[in-house]
Amino acid sequence: MRYARAHGNSTRLHEVAMLRVPVNMIEPGMVLARPIPVPSDPRRFLLQRDHEIPLDLVPRLRDLGIVEVWVRHRDLEFLEDLIDEGLSDCQREVYASVRSNFESIMQETTAQLDVGRFQSSIGGLFDYLKKTVHGNVLLHKLDAFDNYLMSHSANVGYLSLLLGMQLERYLIDERSAKSPRDAKDLTVLGVGCLLHDVGKMRIPSEVLNKPERLTDEEMAIVKQHPVYGYEMVKGRVPASAAQIVLNHHQRFNGEGYPPRVDPDTGELLPPLAGKQIPVFSRIATVVDIYDAATTARCYSGAKQPVQVLHEMRTWCEGFFDPVVADAFYRLVPPFPIGQVVGLSDGSEAAVVDFNPNRPTRPKLQGLKDPKGQRLEDPSLHEIDLALHLDLQITTVNGTDIRPYLASLETPILPETSYALL
């Protein structure tokens, strides 16, 4: 099936299928494969699917923080089957619950959290994922919102559910005081992750949204947000959810913040470390760091997943529970489905499938040959990089990503492979 111009000739406007395209690479004639949500309310849309993208809209998309869109592209029709609009609707309701709660707090400092709405929205998302989850759910990370704190909170809630579902057996072991059914019920995990940064609502906006490097004094203020958040939610949400708010910056190696204080004497206590940290908090730590780095913020742009995963596996050594981290690395692809990549022979291809055993060697479909010429029939140029060791991905959006590849090929250790069982 093809789209054609409505001007009496058969010139193609753009062929039906899907490709993930950065906003700064939108070209004349590109047609949306997925709608562009209104950042302030993702349940409404700036532009619906099947509409040609006006080039004069591009600056506005940039200003709104929208970094990429899905457009039609020939011979990638099957990617459209991976988009689940029911799942997207659930996510938008989660974001709406975050937004309404956080806006109430911004407008009225004594406003109380509508915990019931959090539980309802995250419970609906969890139920939907249990029924429909498949290997490409990360196509559904929604980040085209106008408020970093709110969109980050919604995404961390979503990612925590996906990761928790990979760790059911580990959760049963780690939460052995509960029945297996209750141990792997992730609603509390999702609620805690939606609220993990709620304490930032108590941080002055001139500090929280400062585009320059924070001073030591300002950083000390920001580091109080887990305590502020815990005070806001304690007694209003289950204890396991409140612990996520308090402990999501505690590191597996004992680093992190906030410092522990004896409530009776005021003396400092040794930091939580290892499995002293509740397992839900260990999950929150991983997804919080990943989503923060892959989302645009006031002081930095969004990084590519391949770079963030490299940094997590190198710079953040010791921060994470190794079981949780390994499950995360098997879940999250360094090259998202639909992303255009450059190969070592000069050709260009789109990512069409993720190989968790060889994460830097996904399955691709060719788009351009080594001379930069568009392939007449890309379906004849399917490439499984796990079988073509003479090729490797070298660029994403024109950026050389080769320095990140070696760290991502580290094998999963048997003792940490709960997600494989």
Structure description:
35% of the residues lie in helices and 13% in strands. By secondary structure, the protein is α+β, with helices and mostly antiparallel strands. It has a 6-stranded antiparallel beta sheet, with no helix packed on it. A hairpin with a 6-residue loop joins strand 7 and strand 8. Helix 2 (85-107) crosses helix 4 (148-166) and helix 11 (239-247) crosses helix 12.
* The number of domains: 3
**Average of pLDDT:** 83
Name given to the CATH architecture of the largest domain: Orthogonal Bundle
- Percent in strands: 5-15%
Radius of gyration: 22 Å
Biggest sheet overview = 6 strands, antiparallel
Spatial sequence of strands, sheet with the most strands = 12-11-10-9-13-14
CATH top level class name of the largest domain: Mainly Alpha
Encode the helix/strand succession as letters.
EEEEEHEHHHHHHHHHHEEHHHEEEEEE
Here the CATH topology of the largest domain equals Hypothetical protein af1432
Please provide the count of β strands: 14
Distance between the termini: 41 Å
pLDDT < 50 runs, ≥5 residues = 1-17
Outline of the structure:
The chain is of the alpha+beta class. Helices cover 35% and strands 13% of the residues.
SSE layout and pairing:
Blueprint: E1 2-4, E2 12-15, E3 19-22, E4 36-38, E5 41-47, H1 58-63, E6 68-71, H2 85-107, H3 115-132, H4 148-166, H5 168-174, H6 180-183, H7 187-194, H8 205-208, H9 216-222, H10 225-233, H11 239-247, E7 260-261, E8 268-269, H12 279-293, H13 305-314, H14 322-331, E9 340-343, E10 348-353, E11 363-368, E12 382-384, E13 393-396, E14 399-400
Antiparallel strand pairs: 1-2, 3-6, 4-5, 7-8, 9-10, 9-13, 10-11, 11-12, 13-14
Helix pairs in contact: 2-3, 2-4, 3-4, 3-7, 4-7, 4-12, 7-11, 10-11, 11-12
